[in-house]
């Protein structure tokens, strides 16, 4: 018999608290304010630990991709906590709308809620693909514009914080400044301000100026980029606090921004027209939307570089990076974007890369691990290690593998040597030898 799941209605906006799984921490903290401005009551979940994954395994079959296990486990763990009025609680989950199985998380979650004894809990979908049309939660234009601002601000705050924190003279100053700006921007968003393109372009230099004013002592450090499946890449729950571990090892960490993934999804809609035909209006609309985002992005990047910080190239330049390496038609999961981000990082001085790959995400193993040898052949300085994340993988084993990569990076940092072509064995899959290639700092 078909299960008639409870729908999130417009009336629930005033009566229900919406629980949101945490992924990109800074961006989601800001998104909470945008949702509250539109009348939603929200809470970003912070419950972590092995119990979350075990609950996911209990209520979802174990060949489901790892992010689904964690998100569903985190929701059920929160509902089990007793903190919430279960008759006035709803859940919010994202749907990409593409070939990724993430589009089906919402159905797995609803089934898991019934099995866990919470059939009355409604689930709302956050998507840009017109899915769940009968839901009372809709991504209308005002909320969309605010969400875009939250992602841009969050990307910038994260990037600047990560470039300052490893060198700051007073530990914690960069983190406190992030909190300060989230408070300022949050109050502005609640007042219906600071989310237009004009306001963002005005605010970006102010943010960069304050981070540039933090006293630092620049010393050589290993620079590490992180790429991978979108959830495991950003979520501390998904990657076992990867950023915290890397910083404890004395590294400067670079996470390519979340807006790049958003632009990638938009670009792919237009690329479908190029590859397969279809409505010209779709291509026209996506191109205009990307042009609008490009103007904001370039203003953000200019503010960063003008203040003395590293700024990657804009998305329109990122599109050109994988030429000759992978087709733009490879767009399942993170697709060509993952490969392009690795190339961008190597070219930008972050040749040491952790590629976070969750269990059950075959596309990302192909465009991530599958591209490593090609990138190494093109860029001998590249020092890339794919790390698998799944319920059975231990944090100790993951960190030990990363430490091997860092050992190579530290050796190159201390004893730089002229770059040499990779051997056939290394191109075939062998790890770079300590001391063979230089480390860019």
In words, what does this structure look like?
The structure is a single chain. The protein has 441 residues and is of the alpha/beta class. Among the domains are: 12-139, Rossmann fold; 221-256 and 312-441, Rossmann fold. It contains 18 helices and 8 strands. It has helices at residues 12-15, 25-37, 50-59, 66-80, 105-116, 141-164, 173-190, 197-212, 230-234, 242-248, 258-276, 280-306, 315-318, 335-347, 362-367, 372-378, 395-414, 424-427; strands at 17-20, 41-44, 89-94, 123-126, 223-228, 252-254, 352-358, 383-389. It has a 4-stranded parallel sheet with strand order 2-1-3-4, with helices on both faces. Helix 3 packs across helix 4, helix 8 (197-212) packs parallel to helix 12 and helix 11 packs antiparallel against helix 12 (280-306). The longest helix is centred in the middle third of the chain and has 27 residues, at 280-306. The model is unreliable at 434-441 (pLDDT under 50).
Topology:
Elements: H1 12-15, E1 17-20, H2 25-37, E2 41-44, H3 50-59, H4 66-80, E3 89-94, H5 105-116, E4 123-126, H6 141-164, H7 173-190, H8 197-212, E5 223-228, H9 230-234, H10 242-248, E6 252-254, H11 258-276, H12 280-306, H13 315-318, H14 335-347, E7 352-358, H15 362-367, H16 372-378, E8 383-389, H17 395-414, H18 424-427
Parallel strand pairs: 1-2, 1-3, 3-4, 5-6, 5-7, 7-8
